[in-house]
Specification:
Elements: H1 2-6, H2 32-45, H3 50-62, H4 67-83, E1 87-88, E2 92-96, E3 99-103, E4 106-107, H5 114-128, H6 130-138, H7 140-152, H8 154-163, H9 175-188, H10 200-203
Helix pairs in contact: 2-3, 2-6, 4-5, 4-6, 8-9
Length: 208
C-alpha cells in the first residue's frame, strides 16, 4: 500500500507532486476533508439532490470521487435540463489536467433567451453535479495527475515561461514552483512580469 501511494507502479520512479502548502484562494492546496466539507455546505444550501449529497459524504469516507461517480452526476444534470426542454449531446470522454472530464453540449429550449435560461441551467447543475465535480477536480488524485502532466512537458513549459518574460532561474524551478509560475502567467500576465501572447499550459497541449 505504501508503495502504491509513493511510487509510479512501484517502479522506483517517484511521482512528481504539487505542493500541499495551504493557500486560502486555491482549493487544490486544502486538506481533502476541508474540500468535501465546503462542497457539502454549498450543496446543502443549493438544495442538492440526495444522490449528490450521498456521493459527497461517501467521498469523505473513501478519500476520492471516481470517474463513474463524476459521470453519473453529469448524466443527472443532463437529465434535469432535458426535462426542461433543452437539447443535449451525449457525454464523451475528454482529458483536462491529466484527468478524465465529461464533454457535452447543452442547447437552451426554443423560445428561452440566455438571461431566462441561465439560472435554470445553473440550478440543474448545482442540484446534480456541481459539487461532486468540484471535489473531483480538487482531490489528491487530480493533484497527482496534474503533476504528472506538468512533469511530462516540463522542459517545454519552462522554456515558454522564459519566452514570455520569466528569468533564467525558471530552469531551476521545482514542479511546484513551475506550476505557480504558470498560473501567474496564465491568469496574471503583466502583473507578474509575463506576456500573454500565448498560454504556456495550453501551448503544451495540457487542457485547463
Amino acid at each position: 500500500m505504501a508503495c502504491a501511494l509513493a511510487l509510479a507502479g512501484c517502479s522506483g520512479t517517484p511521482v512528481p507532486m504539487i505542493s500541499s502548502t495551504y493557500d486560502p484562494n486555491d482549493p487544490s492546496t486544502w486538506a481533502f476533508n476541508d474540500i468535501v466539507d465546503t462542497a457539502i455546505a454549498y450543496a446543502e444550501a443549493a438544495h442538492a439532490t440526495q444522490t449528490q449529497l450521498d456521493e459527497l459524504r461517501e467521498a469523505k469516507a473513501t478519500g476520492s470521487i471516481t470517474v463513474d461517480q463524476a459521470r453519473v452526476a453529469n448524466e443527472a444534470y443532463l437529465e434535469c435540463v432535458q426535462a426542461l426542454g433543452a437539447t443535449t449531446t451525449t457525454i464523451e470522454d475528454a482529458t483536462s489536467m491529466g484527468m478524465w472530464w465529461p464533454s457535452f453540449s447543452v442547447t437552451a429550449p426554443p423560445g428561452l433567451d440566455e438571461s431566462t435560461w441561465a439560472p435554470l441551467d445553473e440550478d440543474c447543475n448545482a442540484r446534480n453535479a456541481t459539487y461532486v465535480m468540484y471535489v473531483y477536480g480538487n482531490q489528491p488524485a487530480a493533484r497527482e495527475a496534474l503533476a504528472k502532466a506538468l512533469a511530462k512537458h516540463e522542459e517545454q513549459l519552462k522554456q515558454c515561461l522564459i519566452d514570455m518574460g520569466g528569468g533564467a532561474e525558471i530552469n531551476d524551478f521545482t514542479i511546484d514552483e513551475m506550476w505557480n509560475a504558470l498560473k501567474d502567467q496564465s491568469f496574471g500576465g503583466e502583473d507578474y512580469g509575463y506576456s500573454q501572447d500565448k498560454d504556456c499550459v495550453i501551448d503544451a497541449g495540457i487542457n485547463w
